[in-house]
Specification:
Layout lengths: L2 E6 L6 H7 L2 E3 L2 E4 L2 E4 L5 H8 L7 E3 L3 H12 L4 E6 L7 H15 L5 E5 L4 H16 L4 H12 L2 E6 L4 H5 L5 H10 L1 E8 L2 E9 L1 H19 L1 E8 L3 H15 L4 E4 L2 H7 L4 E7 L5
Parallel strand pairs: 1-2, 1-6, 6-7, 11-12
Antiparallel strand pairs: 3-4, 3-5, 8-9, 8-13, 9-10, 11-13
Helix pairs in contact: 3-4, 5-6, 9-10
Length: 286
């Protein structure tokens, strides 16, 4: 009997890592051009190239009850334990649906062990949590220890990012037209982060370049204070800028972070051109 990790597609963990650590991914979906697409099967270049021309943003949906049921049962039926790690319950119903599915399975297998964690974030900030949990599981640790390690990692991670335009935040109703117009005139770019399960504004900076510099300052100060473990650079349809940003981070951290694209579920709301850093420190930041 082993502990198996299940997470959702908004963790954006690279495929090679998923395979190496035997992490199961349940996909969210995007409704786009009157068709529902699993996020894990989408052509992101095609999707983002069309996104800017849409008057109405695509909508996203959580994994189906059946998909979560199958993801858990494939392990439970083999006698394994499951630890599920899902994006913030403030952003999606995925976590609450996972709880519903857990209770359905316990009616059939009362002795089954299914532990669920609300990651309170998304993207690779959540990915680091799933990776550490999976590494602990691979080392043979108990489900209780795996959960403890996951919660510890949650205290040691941060995700900061900045969109290149406010167009998608406006379309999604996250800022008003007047605020968007004023920000465009003043060339204000928000630096965003995730706190208490919600996307919040960390700072408002003039110009995209200075917003990127501000994120580097936040990153540098925190790794000096709390120690450096790992980092990745996220991007939305901006691989060249992301690679250049990763090289800058390498000059600070001593090694080049992976560059990982953000998928359609999260990317819809902030839009192409977004650049971010997700990182993990040695000591808890919160």
């Amino acid at each position: 009997m082993a502990v198996k990790i299940v997470t959702d597609s908004t963790s954006y963990i690279p495929q090679s890592t998923l395979e190496a650590l035997n992490i199961t991914v349940v996909s969210l979906s995007v409704s786009f051009e009157d068709t529902n697409h699993l996020e894990t099967e989408m052509d992101l270049d095609l999707f983002y190239s069309k996104l800017s021309s849409l008057d109405k943003l695509p909508t996203s949906s959580q994994p189906s009850t059946d998909d979560l049921y199958q993801a858990f049962m494939q392990h439970i039926e083999k006698g394994h334990e499951v630890v599920g790690i899902f994006l913030s319950s403030e952003m999606s119903g995925t976590y609450s649906t996972a709880y519903l599915v857990k209770n359905m399975i316990l009616e059939i297998y009362p002795q089954a062990s299914i532990e669920l964690i609300d990651a309170r974030t998304n993207c690779m900030e959540m990915g680091f949590v799933a990776i550490d949990a999976a590494q602990a599981a691979k080392e043979g640790k108990s489900s209780q220890e795996v959960v403890r390690i996951a919660h510890h990692t949650m205290k040691c991670t941060r995700f900061v990012f900045t969109p290149s335009t406010l167009e998608f935040l406006k379309k999604g109703g996250r800022i008003g037209n007047a605020s968007s117009l004023l920000a465009d005139i003043l060339k204000i770019k928000p630096v965003l982060t995730v706190e208490n399960g919600l996307t919040t504004t960390l700072a408002k900076i003039r110009t995209h370049k200075k917003a990127l510099e501000y994120m580097l300052d936040v990153f540098t100060n925190e790794i000096k204070q709390y120690g450096y473990m790992d980092a990745i650079v996220h991007h939305i349809h901006s691989p060249n800028e992301a690679m250049a940003y990763a090289a800058t981070i390498a000059s600070i951290a001593g090694k080049t972070p992976q560059v990982i694209p953000i998928g359609a579920v999260i990317g819809t709301h902030v839009g192409p051109g977004t650049i971010g850093i997700a990182y993990r420190t040695q000591k808890p930041m919160r």
